[in-house]
Amino acid sequence: CALFGIYGTSDAAAHTALGLHALQHRGQEAAGIVTFDGRHFHNHRAAGLVGDIFGEQSVIATLKGYSAIGHNRYATTGGSSDRNIQPIFADFDFGGLALAHNGNLTNAYLLRKELVRMGCLFQSTTDTEVINHLIARSSYSPVVDRIIDALGKVKGAYSLLMLTAEALYGVRDPMGVRPLCIGRLEDAWIITSESCALDIIGARFVRDVEPGEIVIVDGQGLRSIKPFAKQQRRFCVFEHIYFARPDSKIENVGVYEARKRIGMELAKENPVPADVIVPVPDSGVPAAIGYAQKSGIPFELGIIRNHYVGRTFIEPADHIRHLGVRLKHNANRAHIDGKRVVLVDDSIVRGTTSMKIVEMVRSAGAKEVHMRIAAPPTTDPCFYGIDTPEREKLLASRYDVAGMAKFIGVDSLAFISIDGLYRAMGMPGGRDAANPTFCDACFTGDYPIALDDLNDTEDRQ
Ligand code: 5GP
Ligand code: SF4
Ligand code: MG
Prior knowledge:
The chain is an alpha+beta fold.
């Protein structure tokens, strides 16, 4: 999901809509904006793309105010019904509070059961609403202490934005699994998922929100507190591999450069004699550039992507995904025919994309097809906010590398090693198993945050 919040400008909604548009890659199912105009909150939420929901000036005009938060939804829990669209808004004894969440809580289901038993009426099926009820029930004051009290009870990955009549709050979970950064535009403060959302409105990047930090912006300016016990930071390495936009800077790392370095490391670890390096667009492009530079083999756009089809994997249903992959890519025959081709992609999840691309490249006349992947094999599902499918659907959980190569039909297949990945991320010693600096659970099975709900087997919504 994507977060964008702004405080201190008369065009809060218009800026938020632009920010959400820049963050569309983080969620394409639905979007919403809540604003506050000094007296009233206004909100508009709908299924669809940001441009379709907020493109009309008349919609923006109804969202009056000098502060706003917005959210792009990408369903990880709770299904795709309208009542799950964020920001969620509720009236508390202290006034209104809007809440938007990127990440996934790992004990939300257990907390929810307990809250329902105590009489809480849930309006949605998302994990996020649990935070609302915990804030509502907290006996602390002021609001920020109620937020701290509530967050003390939840486990999981969360970057959060909250908007009240008084302030804009930005929070990152104690391990900082999901991104969040701070920007400045004249007198306004911005808190958002990625720096590309600052660029689109001409705002200046100030810094990342730190893991475990709560940032509060109000009429007095910006202040920060760190109420949680300090923990090892475990930023999601998959944001760098795939999820974030390449023109963003996250955790002080330029995403594009990181992907190129991963490609270089991949070339070092897994060279192969070939005539051409071809990225699987768009996600494989920076890594393929790195691979080509390191190997000295020419880089060509041997596959052309149709830009009017969204990211295939973000569509929730399997049959759509199959259809999407065929709609999306075409071989550029002149650079494939008669060649030994190295395809570079960021990751293999189910293997369906790779299988189709390989088939397409072969039928365009490739002499050999080798596949190089800029991530280790995805063996385990994510429970922290990325929508990887259940373990049984992950190709790497069913086959070893040789089996995967056979499944997708390539002459050779290789993945970057986990140590190679850490080297590319600036850790010359590779992954320190005792103290890894990233979350890499989908590649290692080492889950840094306890998965309480997983052990609870009652069926859930
Ligand atoms: P596959 O066909 O192997 O399921 O999809 C792999 C492609 O989907 C890669 O090109 C990659 O860019 C993209 N992808 C990256 N992350 C994910 C994810 O979490 N889930 C899914 N299904 N696809 C992803
Ligand atoms: Fe990121 Fe993978 Fe960890 Fe999920 S499990 S937070 S995708 S590194
Ligand atoms: Mg891709």
